[in-house]
Amino acid sequence: MELSIIIPVYNVSKYLNSCLESITSxxxxxxKVEIILIDDGSTDGSGDICETWSEKYPYIRTIHKKNGGLxxxxxKGIDVARGRxxxxxxxxxxxxxxxxxxxxxxxxxxxxxxxxxxxxxRILDDNIEKNKL
Length: 133
Description:
Helix content is 32%, strand content 20%. The chain has 4 helices and 6 strands, in the order E-H-E-H-E-H-E-H-E-E.
């Protein structure tokens, strides 16, 4: 396993499907990637959404835990991750097309990396701010 993508989930039913669609839209399962959804005690149906995605895709796992906060959820993801590298995505984020493929290509070409940092755009009520780093 090359890459574990850890996504803490807490009461984000409004955003979670969009997040997961953006991540999985251009990725074909090849045993290099796992997505770990950490349901941190959601009460709005987010945990059920996680289960639906886990049933649909063999590379998505859902872990349910008692609410402990963002750091606790990320740490749980780290504990169960099988990948050589870790990526963290917030459950209300949408990633660029081919996100997984881009990361895998970079990791393949540059094996001695310790960290990758990407720029981002902040979108608030359909207003897009300038790229950030």
